[in-house]
Amino acid sequence: MSTRTGRTASHWGSYIVSSTDDEVTHVRPVPEDLDPSPIGQNYRGSLQHRSRVTRPAVRRGWLEGRRHGRGTEPFVEVSHEDAVALIADEIDRVRRDHGNEAIFGGSYGWGSAGRFHHAQSQVHRFLNAAGGYTRSFNTYSHAADEVVLPHLVGDREWFLRSVPAWSEIAEHTEELIAFGGLPRRSAQINPGGVGSHVNVLSQIEAARAGVRFTIVTPVRSDTDAELNADWIAVRPNTDVALMLALAHTILQRGKADVDFLERCCVGWDVVQRELRGEDDGVVKDAAWASEITGVPVTRILELAERICSRRTLVTVTWSLQRQHHGEQAYWAAITLAAMSGSMGKPGGGFGSGYSSMHNAHVNDRLSPAAALPQGRNPVSTYIPVARISDLLLNPGASFDYDGKRSIYPDIRLVYWIGGNPFHHHQDLNRMRQAWARPDTIIVHEPFWNAHAKHADIVMPVATSLERTDFAIGMGDRWLGWMDRVAEAPQGIVTDYEIFAAVAERLGCGAEFTEGRHADAWVAELWSRSREKAAGMGFDLPTLGEFRERGSVALDMPRRVPSAFSELRADPVAHPLKTPSGRLELYSATVAGFGYDDCPGWARWMEPVEWLGSPLAERFPLHLVSPQPDGKLHSQFDHGSESSSHKRAGRAVMRIHPHDAAQRDISDGDIVRLFNDRGATLASASIDDSMQPRVVALPTGAWYDPVDAAAPQPLDKHGNPNVLTLDVGTSRLAQGPSAHTCLVDVERYDGELPTLTAFDPPEFVPASTISTTSYEGRGQK
Ligand SMILES: Nc1nc2c(c(=O)[nH]1)N[C@H]1C(S)=C(S)[C@@H](COP(=O)(O)OP(=O)(O)OC[C@H]3O[C@@H](n4cnc5c(=O)[nH]c(N)nc54)[C@H](O)[C@@H]3O)O[C@H]1N2
Ligand SMILES: Nc1nc2c(c(=O)[nH]1)N[C@H]1C(S)=C(S)[C@@H](COP(=O)(O)OP(=O)(O)OC[C@H]3O[C@@H](n4cnc5c(=O)[nH]c(N)nc54)[C@H](O)[C@@H]3O)O[C@H]1N2
Ligand SMILES: [Mo]
After folding, report:
1. pLDDT on residue 771
2. What residue ranges in 602-659 does DSSP mark as E strands?
3. Catalytic hit among 108, 231, 268, 703
4. SS percent in the chain: helix, strand, coil, step 5
5. How far is the CA of 125 from the centre of ligand 3 (A)?
């Protein structure tokens, strides 16, 4: 029996992990973590779980030369060497016959923490060495805001860093109005790692210091109870109407901050015309918004009064822009903040993502981290990240994006590591059709999730617990060492080692590895990080000392003056990086694009689906699909913490008692959620913290179809993305619209199908392959 104890770091925190015979037995938070996340408990028993991919596997039909059959056919296990040869030869065939733009390497996903073994860095460096690939832009997290904010404020990164931090809020803010709430579960996560969780503690301190919190969301529990927040229940996807009515009320009462609006902004005239309805004949007053949002007129008037008479911070969660016309939520919130009188004053104005990610506005430190160099991608074709199904379904079609018009290339090969599109993408039944199009799909995965099961070539990989690395979370104070706390099962190597072998066969091995083994790269990146820190005037320990100590606190605060306080003080001396130098409440650039779904100023436009649309007669409930409590996305869904948030093995859907009673649904019943796009089973939780006619089903349950060959199979496990809508936020950003989705729910009285999400696929021996043998294909 061999036991080991060491440190690891993850997107959800750092832990001391013990293993016996290479399986995790104990997980303890590191001592410096003030509010550790239970998500780390998922590691226990996960490494040798039956869902582990243990050998390279190739879909039988692919070996027989067929494209169709993904997700339904058995796999043939092959040797590592044979798999490497199949991958290299297929990449070579595609780039020779179709050019490198026929390779999609956009490969979105969070992967694991660790500077060197970062999956996206690895795949992009590898594909660049192999001649390039079609890439993806922006994120699922905040694509719409990434594209729209630069038009309003110029430098988005700088602007988001300069919004009030929690310490400033505690001192100066009187009213914090949080559209989308401040869900405490989301703040467990920070990309690249988090040494100590302090976000929710900072929120509570602000509440104790007297900040009054108001959350505007369809889910009352979207906040820590200690904040004592007022709840304004809003119909999903209607926040813009509410914001405009608040703005209209402020305008009517003569309380708009005309000085700031006229000196520091452009477009105040357009905003007034919009609010007064001078062009469309619709006055955006409280009565108008009450009809749309379901918020009583008196509450709108009262909230408007507080906003313009007290030091107010208006915040929006990222979820508000993960919906149809998501650009407008940010635009309207900034417009409201600009009118409030608090913009550019301590603790006031606008900010986003306060609880969407741990370090948002609690930690903002400079990073000394050196990144793995990516090389150069000579291919220029791209997609906005959430247009993946459109790309595969419509080669040659044109699409709009931020003022440009581009063409979807014809993708023959998809190479995806460190992400799970069967987790993250909307309308999975549509995506499965798209998935049937390319010649070849190659995936590296530690576990047999749906992404692996729908691939042609699956390479098993070591998890972050089975390799050595170091983590530096975005903005974080702590640098964390990552020990190899277990050995990967026999024959399983890291992404890096797989790419090194494939690159070798493709003739670009030296370019990819530069002659270094993985651990030599870790040492190299650490020494480059030390140099970088030294250049900034900070000392980092040697690699040996770092490993010994396990973590290092590095205080390199990034001091950014408030974008808007400088602007307010002197807009000529401190212009924003916009065409006008001012805050563009009206953007001539965006207006000039001529998009009917994204005009050049904040506007309420009905989303394609919402509780006010005709479709609500057939599907009367709005589905929101928030982030899951017990895990990050789909990662370690087989773990104990994730399982503890399920019932009868299914994800839990929350529903208001009234909606449940109407449908004869009792707490704990298995229910079927459905619409025209698909259907899934979940366990019903009757919960009066839900707004009536809204149901919430978290993301993350591994997609588990009853009959994978059917066009619209029932998902057994509670994955909301079989129901969600796959349209761009608008022609401007083309972001995902996950939170725009109508459904209905019924009690499921049928026989409960057995869960197979965590079972490996069927394997058949290589001898059963007809036509082309895999040896033949591999040597082609
Ligand atoms: N309906 C709905 N859908 C959503 C959202 C929503 O709000 N509603 N939110 C969206 C958002 S914001 C995001 S960011 C996405 C997240 O979507 P993803 O980032 O795609 O989700 P993850 O589950 O984190 O995927 C990571 C995958 O990488 C694997 N992995 C981990 N480490 C490694 C490694 O070192 N090497 C390799 N090869 N693989 C590794 C894991 O096993 C897992 O399968 O989901 C989006 N989808
Ligand atoms: N535990 C955990 N934390 C996570 C993640 C995870 O997977 N697990 N993922 C991380 C990632 S990648 C991201 S991008 C962030 C995302 O962070 P967010 O976008 O902030 O998180 P969500 O859970 O998608 O949405 C937050 C809340 O918005 C509300 N909401 C939905 N639609 C509307 C609407 O139209 N109007 C209003 N007013 N409210 C609405 C929902 O009730 C939901 O609870 O979370 C991060 N944190
Ligand atoms: Mo995200």
Report:
1. 62
2. 621-624, 652-655
3. 108
4. 35, 20, 50
5. 23
Instruction: Name the closest ligand to CA 386.
Output: 1
How far is Cα 710 from Cα 194, in angstroms, rounded to an integer? Answer: 42
* Residue range(s) in the chain whose domain bears CATH number 2.40.40.20: 614-747
H helices present in 394-535, as ranges: 421-424, 428-435, 450-453, 495-506, 509-513, 518-535
Q: 3-137+368-472+478-553 is classed in which CATH architecture? A: 3-Layer(aba) Sandwich (3.40)
Are β-strands 312-316 and 349-352 bridged in parallel, bridged antiparallel, or unpaired? parallel
User: What is the value of pTM for the model shown?
Assistant: 0.97
480 within 8 A of 64, measured Cβ to Cβ: no
Q: How far is the CA of 353 from the centre of ligand 3 (A)?
A: 11
Cα–Cα dist 637/380, whole Å: 36
Q: What is the pLDDT of residues 732-755, one digit of tens each?
A: 999 999 999 999 999 999 999 999
Question: Residue 776 — very low, low, confident or very high, per pLDDT cuts 50/70/90?
Answer: very low
Tell which residue, 507, 513, 518, 441, has the closest CA to residue 131: 507
**Which residue is associated with the tokens 């009213």?**
175
Q: Which ligand is nearest to the CA of 353?
A: 2
Assess whether the C-beta atom of 356 lies below 6 angstroms from ligand 1.
Answer: no
Strand partners, 28: 16
Residue nearest to atom 47 of ligand 1 (CA): 424
Nearest atom of ligand 2 to the alpha carbon of 187:
47
Q: How far apart are CA 335 and CA 152, in angstroms?
A: 10
- Can you tell me the distance from the alpha carbon of 747 to that of 659, in angstroms, rounded to the nearest whole number? 12
Count CB neighbours of 407 within 10 A.
12
- In the chain, the percentage of residues whose pLDDT exceeds 70 is 99
Q: How far is the C-alpha of 648 from the C-alpha of 738, rounded, in Å? A: 26
For residues 364, 367, 372 and 378, what is the CA-based torsion angle, rounded to 10 degrees?
60
Candidates 110, 288, 416, 526; catalytic one = 110
What are the DSSP calls for 8-77, one per residue?
EEETTEEEEEEEETTEEEEEEE-TT-SS--GGGGGGTTTTT-TTB--S-EEEHHHHTT-S--TTTS-EEE
Whose alpha carbon is nearest atom 29 of ligand 1? 418
Q: Is the CB of 698 under 6 A from ligand 1?
A: no
141 Cβ partners below 8 Å, 6+ apart? 318, 322, 356
For residue 734 the two structure tokens come to: 């083309």
Nearest CA, atom 15, ligand 1: 424
- For CATH 3.40.50.740, the residue range(s) in the chain are 3-137+368-472+478-553
- Rounded Cα distance between 624 and 727, Å, is 16
> Known catalytic residue: 416?
no
Topology adopted by domain 143-365+566-593: Dimethylsulfoxide Reductase; domain 2 (3.40.228)
DSSP label at residue 763: B
Give me ligand 2 centre to Cα 357, in Å: 9
Q: 683 CB under 6 A from ligand 1? A: no
**Strand order, beta sheet including 75-77:** 75-77, 57-59, 457-460, 440-445, 413-417, 103-104
199-220 burial, b for 16+ CB within 10 Å, e for fewer? Answer: bbbbbbbbbeeebbbbbbbbbb
Return residue ranges of the chain for CATH 3.40.228.10: 143-365+566-593
Predicted confidence at residue 405, as pLDDT, reads 98
In angstroms, what is the span from residue 11 Cα to ligand 3's centroid? 12
Helices (H), 489-577: 495-506, 509-513, 518-535, 543-549, 563-569
319 is written with which tokens? 């979820």
CATH code for the domain defined by 614-747 = 2.40.40.20
Structure tokens at 348: 């006031």
Residue 778 is classified by DSSP as: H
Under the banding of pLDDT at 50, 70 and 90, the label for residue 363 is confident
Show the CA angle centred on residue 531, arms to residues 190 and 32, nearest 5°.
Answer: 35
Cα angle value 376/377/378 (rounded, 5°): 110
